[in-house]
Design brief:
- By secondary structure, the protein is mainly beta.
- The chain contains 3 helices and 13 strands; from the N terminus they run αβββββββββββααββ.
- The two termini are 30 Å apart.
Length: 217
């Protein structure tokens, strides 16, 4: 089983550099192994069917998170070299399951990361006054599954590199049992045996039109 600390590139500090990953690693290694918390879930991005593939609309798609008690920010994201666990061409989406070590504490997702390298690089996402708050808490030694999260872009216009601002949203949803087990399987053996608290993020508390609930069968 993969050492969970090797998954830290999924939690890249907002600088986007190796220093951010090193800082996160140092924070986690400062916590005794039996006191580390684990964040589980499924992360999904919109894609456009193209040939045998489903092409990711933008090169970088993710979500910023931050501690509400410490000056620390990071992100969960996908890039062109991300290894996905599933591709659903019919639903225009692909995603991966995660089980990532965290320092126990109170956190919140607060923004979307959407970036294209086209034209020298362009960022998309909610404006500062539209930042949202999707809180989650991790107790020492606890494993928590936060549901299914999707960085959504309207793909009906094809792969045009400049999406319309109104076509961007973060969709939260319940995770069916199969998805929860798939995320648990990503954990190291000692964590797989832990009870997992299921606490899906709730779009209703985000207070933002950019965060919506999606029903997934």
């Amino acid at each position: 089983m993969t050492n969970p600390l090797k998954l830290l590139p999924l939690l890249v500090a907002l600088t986007g550099c190796a220093t951010g990953v090193s800082q996160q690693r140092e924070r986690i290694e400062s916590v005794p192994a039996d006191q580390r918390a684990y964040l589980l879930g499924t992360y999904v991005v919109s894609c456009q069917p193209r040939g045998d593939d489903c092409a990711q609309r933008l090169e970088v798609m993710g979500m910023n998170y931050k501690s509400v008690t410490e000056p620390f920010e990071g992100a969960i994201k996908s890039r062109p070299d991300t290894k996905y666990d599933f591709v659903d061409r019919d639903r225009h989406e692909k995603g991966y399951h995660f089980c990532i070590p965290f320092v126990p504490g109170d956190y919140e997702f607060f923004n979307l990361i959407l970036h294209t390298y086209f034209g020298g690089g362009t960022d998309f996402g909610p404006r500062k006054h539209e930042a949202f708050s999707l809180p989650f808490s991790l107790k020492p030694g606890e494993a928590v599954h936060i549901g299914r999260l999707k960085a959504w872009l309207d793909t009906r216009s094809g792969l045009a590199p400049m999406p319309q601002f109104n076509s961007i949203a973060l969709l939260t949803s319940e995770a069916p049992p199969a998805l929860r087990e798939a995320a648990r399987a990503k954990c190291e053996p000692a964590v797989q045996s832990k009870p997992v608290r299921y606490a899906p993020l709730q779009a209703s508390v985000a207070n933002s039109p950019r965060v919506r609930h999606e029903s997934v069968q």
